[in-house]
Amino acid sequence: MTHTIYQPDNSSANVLRSEHDATLNTLIRQHGLTGNAQQGRILPAIESPLAQLGMQLFFSKALSGSRDVACASCHHPLLGGGDDLSLSIGVDAAEPNVLGHKRLLQGKLSPSVPRNAPTTFNSGLWQQFMFHDGRVAQLETGITTPDVTYSQPDPLAGDNLVHAQARFPVTSNHEMRGEIFDAGGTTQSCRERLAERLGGYGASTESRLPIAETAYWLEAFRHVYQQPQADASVLITEQTIAAALAEYQRSQVFVNTPWKQYVQGELAAISASAKRGAVLFFRERDAGGYACASCHRGDFFTDEQFRHVLMPPIGPGKGNKDAALQQDYGRWLVTQHPDDKFRFRTPSLLNVAVTGPWGHNGAYTSLEAVVRHMLNPFQAALNYDRGQLTQPNIPTAQLAVNLREMLGGNTDLAGQAYQEEDVQHLLAFLHTLTDPCVTRPDCLQRWIPSGANLPESVLQARF
Ligand code: HEC
Ligand code: HEC
């Protein structure tokens, strides 16, 4: 065993070298970590013209049926690339420009979006699946989406997963479309009507934009595509819109964490407690660890596989013929494979401290509670405290019944007794996975549109 990469090159490092450094050195090599989740991936810079256009579109409410919801309403950089809610609120918000935990539905309706908004940060690093259930997926032959039979390539998916994903929120009734816009139309006609609206072309008169705004977008697309004479109908299409949205999101690379610095040799970058947490995280169970990395694998902290980890079934559920059932079968809804019931994609843990609430349905509103769940899912789920749900009117009536059904399936995460102090060490480690930029509004400013001449539809968020 060699410890050469940890040879201190200055005298102060001696003091900081802890008993854990040698152990971690071995674990880091065994797990093949480089510290850099972006290794080998070329992603756009936010300064690129297409990412800049994508940013304005991402914040524009013009992409929603009733012009009241933007992508950023549920994925705001200042909210960790999410919305700070257990279950997202799209259309029918009481105050559409209010984001975060104060965002409520009109008339105190109960949330209709069944899942928690994942962060868009680092979305360019996913290689296989998008969404909690992986319904947008990379195939050898292309990308499959909900518009086609699963495992068939969608010819309109575009050339990366983020582009493929970006074409769906606008077609979802609860997220952005509402019940009125292009009523009875297909997902594709909905996208095309929205592109026509943005470009001010086409026959539809449905909630048109002010002429000044369509002129603004035409100018912006002409600039990006360097085609000063081109028609809106050529430049502003559902495909170019998705491409721009994807470019913006793929520029949200936040991987410069203290953990990365540590793996790359800066022994003082993380605390002794965090080091202990890292050992517990990476070690196998038979070696006294909790084997978190058997699923949260590699520098991106995910194996991109689907697991049944007994996340407490709160919320309206998804895909139930009978709405009263409130169950979410997760990956099974995509594959119909019996083993896939209740399985959800292993989330990345980069920036996890700022991406709460946690779990595919936001069941846990503190990082500590979800870590306790991961240590002993049976104990945590059976003693689940619904009092932690601060968002009003989240359905929980079927919690016990649905949990019983979940316990009947094959869970993929074994429970075990754990030391109290280990929870704190694991939390200290998870906090080292935060890129400092994501906690600093001045640093995030580059991902938020500003300027006096932005179109009216661009979201001016209040928190
Ligand atoms: C109403 C809130 C809401 C709006 C508006 C919204 N999203 Fe989302 N987004 C979600 C939720 C909830 C999910 C998870 C859904 C699921 O997995 O079933 C999600 C998933 C995603 C993902 C997948 C991330 C991952 O890790 O797989 C991306 C990327 C994304 N949204 C981008 C967008 C874009 C681009 C827009 C605008 C075109 C948008 N979202 C609009 C709530 C929203
Ligand atoms: C068997 C695979 C597996 C193992 C082992 C595992 N996890 Fe997870 N973890 C998951 C899955 C899958 C989810 C998402 C479940 C869901 O949303 O329903 C998750 C969710 C999480 C979350 C919430 C992330 C978010 O964005 O919502 C945290 C934090 C977490 N795990 C930490 C840990 C820690 C710490 C350990 C070790 C003590 C661990 N996990 C062990 C698969 C695993």
User: Total helix count?
Assistant: 17
Portion in strands? under 5%
Class from secondary-structure proportions: mainly alpha
CATH class of the largest domain: Mainly Alpha
Quick check: average pLDDT? Answer: 95
Describe the strand arrangement of the main beta sheet, using strand numbers.
1-2-3
The count of β-strands is 5
Radius of gyration: 23 Å
Overall spatial form:
globular
What is the string of helix and strand elements? HHHEEEHHHHHHHHEHEHHHHH
The CATH architecture of the largest domain can be given as Orthogonal Bundle
Task: Provide the helix percentage.
Answer: 25-40%
- Kindly report the name of the CATH homologous superfamily of the largest domain: Cytochrome c-like domain
State the CATH topology of the largest domain: Cytochrome Bc1 Complex, Chain D, domain 2
- Which ligands, by name, code or SMILES, are bound? heme C
Please explain how this structure is put together.
This protein is mainly α. The protein folds into two domains: 4-30 and 256-434, Cytochrome Bc1 Complex, Chain D, domain 2; 49-252 and 443-447, Cytochrome c-like domain (Cytochrome Bc1 Complex, Chain D, domain 2), CATH 1.10.760. It is built from 17 helices and five strands. The protein has helices spanning 12-16, 19-30, 49-58, 161-166, 173-177, 187-199, 211-225, 232-235, 238-250, 258-263, 272-282, 332-335, 367-375, 377-382, 399-407, 420-431, 441-444; strands at 129-130, 136-139, 142-144, 306-307, 344-345. The strands form two sheets. A three-stranded antiparallel beta sheet has the order 1-2-3. A two-stranded antiparallel ribbon has the order 4-5. A hairpin with a 5-residue loop joins strand 1 (129-130) and strand 2 (136-139). The radius of gyration is 23 Å and the shape is globular. The N and C termini lie far apart (52 Å). The structure holds heme C (2 copies). Residues 63, 69, 71, 73-75, 88, 90, 113, 115, 117-118, 120, 123, 130-133, 162, 165-166, 169-170, 175-176, 245, 249 line the site of one heme C.
